[in-house]
Design goal:
Pfam families: MFS_2. The chain is mostly helical and about 450 residues long. About 75% of the residues lie in helices and about 0% in strands.
Length: about 450
């Protein structure tokens, strides 16, 4: 009789707390790594380093495009090379380059130029994909159970939130309240250089690798992409998730302008609001997980996202300059924020089983690569939509007229979220159908039965 463990692939037993905590640990430093890249590095290289702003922007845009292009390749290679250690070698191999690239990006030598920035930025994105895609795929493979997968994603995304909170607060604490860019980047480098190796050692040591890979004839990347493209529910889900992330990123692109020109509040107040929203979100995370298991992940995702962007309409009722009243909608946003953190990845993971049934192959990493690509495409599209549309509607920061901001920053995200929710109406992979898919895989592809629970 086979001994059962906390991560038994043949049962639906709850995942043991220790391996679950260990698996989710790397999400904390990984989330901290993105903060300087998104918020601080472009301004740092344009001001402190003194590089031309337009060229800095071009290099960051090219690096983001490279990041999106290599995701499917990394996913395909990770699937093809998976051995008895699962995805662990990819994480251990990519992490050193990730830490080194972060160090050189955040601590450039005197006289660093555009070539220096381009080299280390491209290496950062290569290392990031090498770690992140196998890491997400590992989470999909730890349990094929519908509810356990939500729990896994909840722990991982909860740590991601804690990392975001630390990334926001640490520079303020260690920099005397008003840190400069050099201090902020030094804090990020030092913290992540310590936390990421420790977290990865814990994850690799204490978390099982997942189901043993099953032998299958090798296929090329294009053939693998065609198999993923044949999974209709997955493509439909990606369309909905793209719409949700597009809505979120349009809001993110406009939120500081909304704070200033609609609510009459400054950036410092906004940061306090966001900290409060995220803290409430962290506390609401278990409730969102339970709701998803009760009504179904796709229902909770659609309703929660609609609720999030409907709450933004309450900002229109806030008197200008009233910070205490303005915080109330942000507090309500915190209650549904975990929906956007946790449920997209957990729901996408459930569609992998249908892909296994249709193709007879386990391509978890390639699926997660397309999931990542949808997220990055939404970010790029939001930048190309929000700011140009504000200009077309006549928004001028010097004049500060609120109506264009209301239309683009509040109404448009709600419309995008509504489109995403409509795509999920009648989504076929419910908990019951997911279980039926797993049973059918056991009959049709018995050699893959250990990969699906």
């Amino acid at each position: 009789m086979r001994k059962r463990t906390g991560l038994d692939m043949r049962t639906s037993e709850p995942i043991g707390l220790r391996p679950l905590i260990a698996y989710s640990a790397p999400a904390l430093p990984l989330s901290m790594l993105l903060m300087p890249l998104i918020l601080y590095l472009p301004a740092y290289y344009a001001t402190s380093v003194g590089l031309p702003l337009a060229m800095v922007g071009l290099i960051f845009s090219l690096a983001r495009a490279f990041d999106g292009i290599i995701d499917p390749l990394i996913g395909h290679l990770s699937d093809a090379s998976r051995g008895r250690w699962g995805r662990k070698p990819w994480l251990l191999g990519g992490a050193p380059l990730l830490v080194i690239a972060t160090w050189y990006l955040c601590r450039p030598p005197h006289g660093a130029g555009l070539a220096y920035l381009g080299l280390w930025l491209f290496l950062f994105y290569l290392a990031w994909s090498t770690v992140q895609i196998p890491y997400l795929s590992w989470g999909v493979e730890l349990s094929r159970d519908y509810r356990q997968r939500t729990r896994i994603a909840g722990f991982r995304e909860g740590n991601l939130l804690v990392g975001t909170l630390l990334a926001t607060g640490l520079p303020l604490l260690l920099g005397g309240g008003h840190p400069d860019l050099d201090t902020i980047l030094a804090v990020f480098v030092g913290t992540t250089a310590i936390l990421l190796p420790l977290a990865l050692v814990a994850a690799v040591s204490l978390t099982p690798a997942g189901p043993a890979p099953q032998p299958a004839p090798p296929i090329g990347l294009i053939a693998g992409i065609r198999l993923v493209a044949g999974n209709g529910p997955f493509l439909r889900l990606m369309g909905a998730i793209f719409a949700f992330w597009l809505a979120a990123n349009i809001w993110n692109a406009c939120v500081l302008l909304v704070m200033e020109h609609v609510l009459g509040l400054d950036t410092g107040t906004f940061l306090l609001f966001v900290l409060g929203q995220f803290l409430i979100g962290l506390m609401a995370l278990p409730l969102v997980t339970r709701l998803a298991n009760r009504i179904g992940k796709h229902h909770a995702l659609a309703l929660g996202t609609l609720a999030f962007f409907s709450i933004l309409l309450l900002l229109l009722l806030v008197p200008r300059g009233q910070a205490m009243i303005a915080f109330l909608p942000f507090a309500l946003l915190g209650l549904v924020t975990p929906v956007i953190w946790v449920l997209p990845a957990a729901t996408a993971g459930d569609a992998v089983e249908l892909g296994i049934l249709l193709s007879g192959r386990d391509q978890s990493a390639l699926y997660m690569a397309f999931y990542n690509f949808a997220q990055k495409l939404a970010l790029a599209a939001s930048i190309g939509i929000a700011l140009p549309l504000l200009g077309l509607l006549g928004f001028d920061p010097a004049r500060g007229q609120p109506m264009p901001l209301i239309l683009v920053g509040i109404v448009l995200p709600l419309l995008c979220a509504t489109a995403g929710a409509l795509l999920l109406r009648g989504y076929p992979i419910t908990e019951r159908r997911h279980a039926a898919i797993r049973r059918r895989i056991a009959r049709v592809h018995p050699h893959l039965a250990t990969s699906v629970g």
